[in-house]
Amino acid sequence: MRILQNGLKGEFLVLGDRRITYEELKSCVESTAYSMQTQCGIKQGDRVAILGANSPEWVISFFAATHLGAIVSALNGWWTETEIRHALELTDPSLVVGDSRRLARAGSLLDNFQVIDFDQNPLFFENSGNEPEYPDLNEDDPALILFTSGTTGKSKGALLSHRSL
């Protein structure tokens, strides 16, 4: 949140006709983190999988989860059901967030997970004015799991710390 606390002005993200300022991003991240914490029970060390197209909601989810100390598992939006299954088995997320199209591709794989659909729950990602309780994070705490291309077999998860982001 350091970058968001510096009071930067102007646009942070432009995607098509959607524009989000730094100030709007900060508010949406705080509200989404609050919802993840209070509605989904997300806490430091939990894993949150994101399975969605490039979108403001993806970015908001990423910042919200990592600022709670959760470890984001970034799933490739083009993966097949088999590839999604492999990643879910490796990471065992406490929450899966994504858009309807990609979540549908996962199908029944998501039956045993908490799921938030960007498209079905837009209020989850909007500014509610609520702020979560943020944990004290260390730069060496895990923050993100990125998956290898899997050229010699199945994709492997590479764990990155807050420092490396």
Molecular structure report:
The protein has a 6-stranded mixed beta sheet with strand order 6-5-3-4-7-8, sandwiched between helices. A two-stranded antiparallel ribbon has the order 1-2. The protein has one domain (2-161): Rossmann fold, CATH 3.40.50.980. The two termini are 13 Å apart. The protein is globular. It contains 5 helices and 8 strands. The protein is α/β, with parallel strands linked by helices. The mean pLDDT is 92.
Q: Could you give a short description of this structure?
A:
By secondary structure, the chain is of the alpha/beta class. 32% of the residues lie in helices and 22% in strands.
Radius of gyration equals 15 Å
Q: What's the CATH class, please?
A: Alpha Beta
Low-confidence stretches: none
Overall residue-averaged pLDDT value: 92
Q: How far is the N terminus from the C terminus?
A: 13 Å
Q: What assembly state would you assign to the polypeptide chains in this entry?
A: single chain
Number of helices: 5
Bin the helical content: 25-40%
How are helices and strands ordered from N to C?
HEEHEHEHEHEEE
Judging by the overall fold, what is the CATH architecture? 3-Layer(aba) Sandwich
Strand content: 15-25%
